[in-house]
Amino acid sequence: MQFKKILGQENIKQQLIKTVEENRVSHAQLFLSPEGCGAFPLAVAYAQYINCLQKTNDDSCGECSNCRKYEKYIHPDLHFSFPFYAKHKEDTAELYIEEWRNMLLENPYFDLNTWRSQINPEKSKQANINISECHSIIKKLSYKAFEAETKVLIMWLPEYLDSQGNALLKIIEEPPANTLFILVANNQEKVLSTLLSRTQIVKIKALPNEVISNYLMAEKSLEEAEAHQYSFLADGNLVEAERLVLHMEDKSADLFTNWLRLGYGNKVTDMIAFTDEMSSWGREGQKNFLRYGINFLRECSLLLNGVEEMVKLPPNILETAKKLTTHVLTQNMINALVIELESAHYHVERNANPKILFLDVSLQLVKIIKFKTFPKGTQYILD
Ligand SMILES: [Zn+2]
């Protein structure tokens, strides 16, 4: 993880780099931050920077032997500890290291909900960092570093250490040579006070709304007003912002595929219920729905053209798209529908009455996919 891959947080990056330049890296640090602002990736980037063999004055190189292993989270001198569900008393976090790495590789911004969904716990069980894990940490850190200059242990959510976590006090106070502890916490009150008093606290702030909305526009193709809306709701939490976008996409996906089915079944009464639902989504939601529809149809077009490897749809939606392109949708229909949706998008932006607009688009949909009649002026490929 290089600093440049981390969203915002420029001041804290500079502050961390300075501790390395001035050779005053404290051996036990507690990164304290609200959720979803990147404290965990910052901890990894900091550790990588410390161990990079060709660091510059603003980042690690990303290419030396240490960086390469850090980037995959497999460096032998980089250890992770995190809350987990012990099946047996002697289980340690090592039991879940593969799920952990996979999650980090997919997205280094996550929260406890993300982590829980990776390890599929039994509902009744409480995640924690148990005493066996503490003993395993002490053992791991007692070895000499294998490849890097500094051994690093990053503990995510030390709030989940129970009182047995005090077993770690001695090693944190008098660590073996060249050892760095970084604890990444969200809730200072829930961290053992004995740990707090032995660590240097590094405070990391929530991300400004503007940073999140710029990210959503650049990476998630959201329009400005919509990006502002989500970043406002997420309140500085990038994990939450991404979750909101995903939720909106899921909702749009369900409604859009259902709408296609209604059109194919010529279910005009249900179409009216659909227009009522659409009216309640508000202008940004309606535009989002239409844009989702346009993208979905373009993906369907790729399927029709036999380039499934280029299709970027999640597995469940891909199944639906395959069924639709096998049994219902032709290229001509897709072309005609995209024109209708683009025109609807244009009219939503200009404050058209949503009930009239979506009813009209729905009737066009029935004409196109049920009766195969296409509006004039559309360029067609012969089916
Ligand atoms: Zn490097």
Order of helices and strands: HEHHEHHHEHEHEHHHHHHHH
Total count of domains? 2
Please give the CATH class of the largest domain.
Alpha Beta
Q: What percent of residues are in strands?
A: 5-15%
Radius of gyration: 26 Å
Uncertain stretches: none
Number-wise, the strands total 5
Shape: elongated
Explain this structure.
The structure is a single chain. With 383 residues, this protein is of the alpha/beta class. The protein folds into two domains: 204 residues, Rossmann fold (3-Layer(aba) Sandwich); 159 residues, no CATH class. Helix content is 53%, strand content 7%. It is built from 16 helices and five strands. The chain has a five-stranded parallel β-sheet with strand order 2-3-4-1-5, with helices on both faces. Strand 3, helix 7 and strand 4 form a beta-alpha-beta unit. Helix 10 crosses helix 11. The longest helix has 27 residues. The protein is elongated and about 80 Å long. The mean pLDDT is 92. Zinc ion binds next to helix 3.
Q: Which features does this protein show?
A:
383 residues, alpha/beta, Rossmann fold, five-stranded parallel sheet, 16 helices, 5 strands, 53% helix, 7% strand, elongated, binds zinc ion
Summarize the structure.
The protein is α/β, with parallel strands linked by helices and 383 residues long.
Task: Describe the SSE topology.
Layout: H1 10-21, E1 28-32, H2 39-51, H3 65-71, E2 78-81, H4 97-106, H5 112-119, H6 131-142, E3 151-156, H7 169-173, E4 179-185, H8 193-196, E5 200-203, H9 209-220, H10 224-234, H11 238-264, H12 268-279, H13 282-304, H14 315-327, H15 331-349, H16 354-369
Parallel strand pairs: 1-4, 1-5, 2-3, 3-4
